[in-house]
Design goal:
By secondary structure, the chain is α/β, with parallel strands linked by helices. About 50% of the residues lie in helices and about 10% in strands. Helix 9 crosses helix 10, helix 21 runs antiparallel to helix 23 and helix 22 packs antiparallel against helix 23. It binds a DNA duplex through helix 4, helix 18 and helix 25.
DNA sequence: GCACTTTATGTTTTT
DNA sequence: CATAAAGTGC
């Protein structure tokens, strides 16, 4: 196994006794170290299924499982557990959640559903407030607080009412037999903390743990890890403090610091050799990140050549930026005779992708979009998932409401309100309330009939979904609700067609999984919520990658364009917390505020660091002189991060002044050339 | 009471 | 400019 590893990597792989922290710089062969360490563990006598590898995304988990399978082929039953925190948490809750009063078929609500519930609890329609509350509650949950503690330490009136709403929200969720994403970590922690026998069982089950992207763990996840590893502390945490970009989600670098105090025997390894980027790119990255305070001293170096200079491209506005970048990319590929998949365009906000998509389409350049709205968030897919959720768990009121009203079947707001009110007063789910005799008096006979008919329909499907093969049941469900017809009626022809296409893709995917896992529709319905993406063959397609910086973490590309490098965009400068008390800002408050501000900038700087370290050979940064924000267009300044990289301006390398015209002319010439040769053929 | 049309409104990042 | 809540015909 030890071929092709440097000393640090080899040492990290071989250290098996006691806790271990691997600080792995960008491009230092982190995933390879993890997978080979797993193999080494097996070689050293650990049984494979007693090893657990925890990642943050399904994509990472999937990739790790694949890589592992390549270097050590194991029968399905004897493979290590490779899983995300959330899906591990889900597994734990499905097994033993009954001890917390959660039925096995509990639903997992997405944030839209939760927003709806919170709107009710807060008695508001102010979406900004709802978002804020959602975020705040999530932070509290990830910090392992409970509503009472949160209320007690609420800094102001708004926080106090959010804490109150949280309690109601929690009650509503348990009435629905549902959990949210945060609960998938939080409740397992509770489960283990309260039940020593379960903790014991899990410690037996998982004898060694490896945690990827450790810098992005939050307090709840840390707690879960501690409970799972126990006093034996047989684990390897792999992370990079310079790539911590999920602070807004409650992740805290404290977990990195705590590791050393909580585990005195902790052995530290640093992977500092970078195998990815050119020296030019790497040293710019080092200079940039040097502006952040250091937790662990770490300096990346590389044996690669100097490589191409980093280009900085100022543009007039977003439109010109997209045009310019797409043209450059196009010309670059022509010159190098490269492939599209060698290119990535990275941006801070999802909505920045739109202009780039337009220009790529215009130029007939294939692209894949990652990050942004996932397949599962599309309206038509959510419609179907609502049915599946309802089939799996008929107490799931949000799913009930969505399914009952799409397609339209004569059940409207008034009917649902009557049902909801009645269900609330009886403390049961809407589905259960539906068939109670007491409900009959609340509604006119006609409405009662329609809604009960819907209930019976769900019952019938439910019965079949638990017994019969998934495929036919799903087909019959779609036929029965005539979803295709409804799409055709309610959309214009083109969107109806693409939506139906999506529905078909989804069905194929469900059937494939059902066949692979031998699962019924009811069983499948339970795990859909935490799957963020179809296992699509994105990697195979020869296409330019459009991605948020967050979604690009862990990936690498020969040529990278980081767009929108402007003050306010990257670093993103959001509105200050709405609860910040304007009037009497004491020195203390403003000091705390400044600290918060600089923490935010540091995270943004790490984000930029992640962005530029995706690049292997060439890196281009662009920024706009003006940008239209909401309704107004404002002048923009180039990002401070460009200056911090200290790109040797003027004299060597940085061509800051290639105009769109030049780029277009160059591409035009190339195209003529290509057209000519094509015609000559 | 239900479905459709207009109108206000608002932007990080994701499991 | 795209989406979601409030208003208007059926």
């Amino acid at each position: 196994m030890s071929t092709g590893f440097n000393d640090a990597q080899r040492a990290a792989i071989r250290h098996l006794d006691g806790p271990c922290l691997v600080l792995a710089g960008a491009g230092s062969g982190k995933t390879r170290v993890i997978t080979h360490k797993i193999v080494h563990l097996i070689d050293s006598g650990f049984s494979p299924e007693a090893i657990g590898a925890i990642t943050f995304t399904n994509k990472a988990a999937q990739e790790m499982a694949e890589r592992l399978q390549k270097i050590a082929t194991l029968p399905t039953a004897r493979r290590p557990l490779v899983s995300t925190f959330h899906s591990l948490g889900m597994q734990m809750l499905r097994r033993d959640g009954e001890r917390l009063g959660l039925k096995r078929s509990f639903s997992i609500l997405d944030s839209d559903d939760c927003a709806g519930i919170l709107a009710g609890a807060l008695a508001t329609t102010d979406r900004k407030l709802i978002r804020h509350a959602q975020h705040q509650i999530s932070l509290w949950k990830n910090a392992l607080l409970d509503p009472e503690t949160a209320a007690a330490q609420a800094a102001n009136g708004i926080e106090h009412s959010i804490a109150r709403a949280w309690r109601e929200h929690a009650a509503t969720l348990s009435a629905y037999q549902a959990v949210d994403f945060d609960d998938l970590i939080l409740l397992p922690v509770k489960l283990l903390a309260e039940h020593a026998d379960l903790t014991q069982a899990w410690r037996e089950r998982l004898r060694y743990l490896l945690i990827d992207e450790y810098q992005d763990t939050n307090a709840a996840q840390y707690q879960l890890l501690r409970l799972l590893t126990g006093p034996r502390a047989a684990f390897t945490a792999v992370g990079d403090d310079d790539q911590a970009i999920y602070g807004w989600r409650g992740a805290t670098l404290d977990n990195l610091r705590r590791l050393e105090t909580d585990f005195p025997g902790l052995k530290l390894f640093k992977l500092e050799q970078n195998y990815r980027s050119s020296v030019t790119i790497l040293s710019a990255a080092n200079r940039l990140i040097a502006h952040n305070p250091k937790l662990h001293d770490k300096k990346l170096w590389s044996e690669h050549g100097v490589g191409d200079p980093i280009q900085v491209v100022p543009c007039a506005n977003e439109e010109a930026e997209a045009e310019s970048i797409v043209m450059r990319l196009h010309a670059h590929r022509f010159e190098r005779r490269g492939t599209w998949r060698d290119y990535a365009i990275l941006y801070r906000d999802n909505h920045q992708s739109r202009v780039f998509e337009q220009w790529l389409r215009k130029e007939n350049i294939p692209y894949v979009l990652s990050g942004g709205q996932s397949f599962f968030e599309r309206a038509e897919i959510r419609d179907l998932i609502a049915y599946l959720r309802l089939i799996a768990n008929d107490d799931d009121d949000p799913a009930f409401i969505r399914a009952a009203t799409t397609p339209k079947r004569g059940i409207g707001t008034a009917t649902l309100k009557a049902l909801g009110d009645y269900a609330g007063s009886r403390q049961v789910s809407m589905f259960e309330a539906l068939f109670e005799t007491g409900f009959e008096s609340r509604l006119a006979a006609r409405q009662l009939d329609t809604v009960r008919e819907f209930g019976e329909f769900i019952n019938r499907i439910n019965w079949r979904a638990a017994r019969e093969p998934a495929g036919p049941v799903l087909d019959d469900l779609l036929a029965a609700i005539d979803y295709r017809g409804w799409l055709a009626d309610s959309q214009d022809e083109k969107t109806a067609a693409t939506r139906w296409r999506n529905v078909c893709d989804f069905c194929d995917w469900v059937k494939k999984r059902a066949a692979e896992e031998g699962a019924t529709l009811s069983q499948l319905a339970q795990s859909i919520a935490i799957l963020s993406q179809l296992d699509r063959r994105d990697a195979e397609a020869d296409a330019v990658r459009l991605s948020t910086v967050h979604a690009a973490k862990g990936l690498e590309f020969p040529h990278v364009f980081v767009v929108g490098c402007e003050e306010g965009v990257l670093p993103h400068l959001g509105a200050r917390d709405p609860d910040a008390d304007e009037g009497g800002a004491t020195a203390e408050v403003s000091a705390a505020r400044a600290a918060g501000d600089s923490a935010r900038i540091e995270e943004e700087r790490r984000l930029m660091y992640v962005a530029i370290t995706r690049a292997q050979r060439s890196l281009t940064l662009s920024w706009c002189r003006e940008r239209s924000h909401a309704r107004q267009t404002l002048p923009q300044e180039p990002s401070r991060f460009i200056a911090e990289m200290e790109l040797s301006s003027g004299a060597s390398g940085v061509r800051a002044t290639v105009t769109n015209e030049t780029a277009r002319a160059r591409l035009g010439a190339l195209k003529d050339l290509l057209g000519g040769s094509r015609a000559a053929k």
